[in-house]
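re: ur question from yesterday

yeah so i grabbed the chain u mentioned. its 558 aa long if i counted rite. heres the sequnce exactly as i have it in my notes:
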Amino acid sequence: MAKYIFVTGGVVSSLGKGIAAASLGCLLESRGLKVTLQKFDPYLNVDPGTMSPFQHGEVFVTDDGAETDLDLGHYERFTHSPLSQANNLTSGRIYEQIISRERRGDYLGKTVQVIPHVTNEIKAAVRRVSSADHAAADVVICEIGGTVGDIESLPFLEAIRQLRHELGRDNTLFVHVTLVPWIAAAQELKTKPTQHSVKELRAIGIQPDILLCRSERPIPQDMKEKIALFCDVDVQAVITAKDVDSVYEVPLTFAEQGVDEIALRLLALDAGPRDLTDWTEMVHRIKQPSREVSIGLVGKYVEYEDSYKSLKEALLHGGWAHDAKVNITWIEAERLKWPEAAGELEAFDGILVPGGFGRRGIEGMLQAIRYARESKVPYFGICLGMQTMVIEFARNVCGLEQANSTEFDPATPDRVIYKLRELKGVDELGGTMRLGAYPCQLADNSFARQAYGRREISERHRHRYEFNREYEAILKEHGLRLTGETPDGVYVEICELADHPWFLGCQFHPEFKSKPLEPHPLFRAFVGAALDYRRAKAETQPDKRAHAAPGRASVILQ
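ran it thru and got these structure tokens back, copy pasting raw so excuse formatting
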């Protein structure tokens, strides 16, 4: 029988419940346990697929094609749990299921209510992820989105309260993430927000077993004793969750305070000794890189970093594979104009254009791609970044001056990118893309084949438009290589330029499969090419030092 850990949050949002849940999973995995994680989101959207990246951040895609919350990205990066549609559920999906059953008459005329019908649906979803179909996990870690006190979170909190009674204390554990703020005027840490948060939780029948106290500074022992007293929690279970330089330090800080040992004791679980050797060595490399590289990321959602969360992490992973720190500069594509773009982009050792939807910023992306192609700067295009790469090549190399995607110009005479043929006539937005993992075959003597080291790969997709094979002949004639295709030859997955140090665009999203201990091959290869470019540039221009490009939306990520 699986054990269950429920992670809740209080006081304010964005305290890092997802990182906390993922770190706990990492620690339990390091002891030989099989872990799976689940996220419940209280909003009424069926999934985050149609939500604005500026509000919700990125949409993380699983192998089975589920559009999910970005916290599932943290879960996959910190653990080896294979996640699916079942691992992310929203209020919208739950209510959708209940209403469709009610319309079918499944409830036999009964009044359908939050209790028991909604809570039963939530409990069933929790139990499902621990089944044999999901690799029979030893521990299921469930994160409840939102904060305690939110009206929309109440059905989820009531459901986990009921699960404690049904499963017993030895099989359930409540972890509450809360805030201990530093008040600068008083020069003090304050425990009152934590006290009130726990009071709110206890009022609905949940007594937390472990408190993860987010704080800018270490929490002194006497303050931990005060929190333990007022919140009725064992003092050893009051954990300092201090701000760290890298999220990958969090499992180590939890390990130092014995969070996993407390969890194992309270869950009456036997496990092997903790082995975080590889993780500790990785964090050491993160803190003491031997070199650095500068990447310009030209996107359309750069004002909100979480819009490209997995992408940022994958770039950092690619750097660590080369013992290098990756400095990422976020550049708003909309403001790039030719020829001024060249002056701004010359500071970078590599240029990346990520995914996105809509026509805003497209011309700026095309200018960035043109600069990378003409100046022989390593280029990596992902999803939209591959499509714009094809458009730029068609216009400026093949002479098709009006080449475009039908997404941006439905009347273009040269539609080198067009809507997926199976989506013609489909106007709904939610879940109507080519989603999830699909196989791809790589061509010999290509950047992709060299990076992966094998011919067959599988990668995750999220797109509505594709490469138009009607233009394959003219594009190839001018030097574009199609180096990745589906086994049936229908879809083009990877395009490259042979006459270039490293110039690759892929239709899939490789960032979703990158882990800190297992960097994705394409990101490792791209950062390696950028490092080579940086070294060659230093040899030919020894007096020029790389610097971040100026601009309102340019931010260096350490």
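noticed a couple things. Confidence is low (pLDDT under 50) at residues 545-558. also The chain is about 35% helix and 20% strand.
anyway ttyl
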